[in-house]
Amino acid sequence: MWTERIYQVIGRTLWRTMLVLVVVLAVYIAGARALLSALPAHQESIDAWISERIELNYQISSLRGDIEKFQPSIRVTDLRIALPNGTPIIFDSAEVTVDPWASLLAGQIRLDTLRLDGLEVDLPVGALPVMNGGGSGARLAAELLVAFRKVTIERADIWLVGAEGGREPLNLTLDLRRAGSERQIALEVAGPSDSHLSISGSSVGDILQLDRFVGELYGHLSLPSARWLANLLGREGNVTGELDLWYHSNSKSPTLEASLAISELTWSREDGRTSTLDSLAFDAGVNLQPAGWTGRLQSFAMNSDDADFSLERLQVESRGDGLRLQTEALDVGDLLATVVTSDLLPGNISDIFSELAPTGSVLAVE
User: What is the pTM for the complete model shown?
Assistant: First the structure.
């Protein structure tokens, strides 16, 4: 009998608790929706608050609020963000969600997720980070990860604009996540002629500052044809190939490894000559240490017309002011004959090597 009474008490307690939770949840949702519905009337104040949080200059056309999976969300349209270098980017829409439980524990609003959708922007080839050394995109991503736990970009169309007015599209998707001190990144870029770039990795610390990076990054580039890129640069040329990159660091001894395989390389030079390579493949790596660095090159093979050069392994070590090179019979004659045939060197240097026609092998240099 006592057992039955205990079960009845527990059952009534659980039932009442569930009713209270349902009522509290209903009040929370109703109250949050009532507050969020009033957002448009306070757009200027909200703009100022968000700008202060993410430290970016931006503008929006309209905003509205709702509840999504028990999280308050703010959706804006026609979002315009000015990058630190002044370049404007425009999104069709953006959605910001707030973490209610983290906000309750912290006693202040904690942003959770930022979703950006529908980007279309023209980007001159000369404005690419790899062309001008700028880090505006990286700084923007770092600032967003400080403010949000998760940042996603979908349906982003970036139009590369060449010096002569040609345009080629790149489609980008990006996923950035933060969990405590851990950062994760996943980037996909699809380009013309089935070109594709992917980058993924995770780290403890800042994934976008390699000097503070502790983790791993992997990148893969597939390039069935690069004629479209050569045209944007105002040159005649083409190449087909694959590139894999791995970066690992424990903050004291970072390592970078690469594997490259290309074929059918042609490139028009400013002096009117055309550089050509039938194929080029190698594996390479660099390890940086406090006392110096070590670089290696292996499985190297290069071919141009009837000239061939191959090398099993080459290692270069730097310790202090000294440099040490070790290899397995580097054939100087084959190397220079292949380079001269491919027209990779400036014309006057190629003429000198053709005239001298050096031969021999290098085993070590110290």
Answer: 0.76
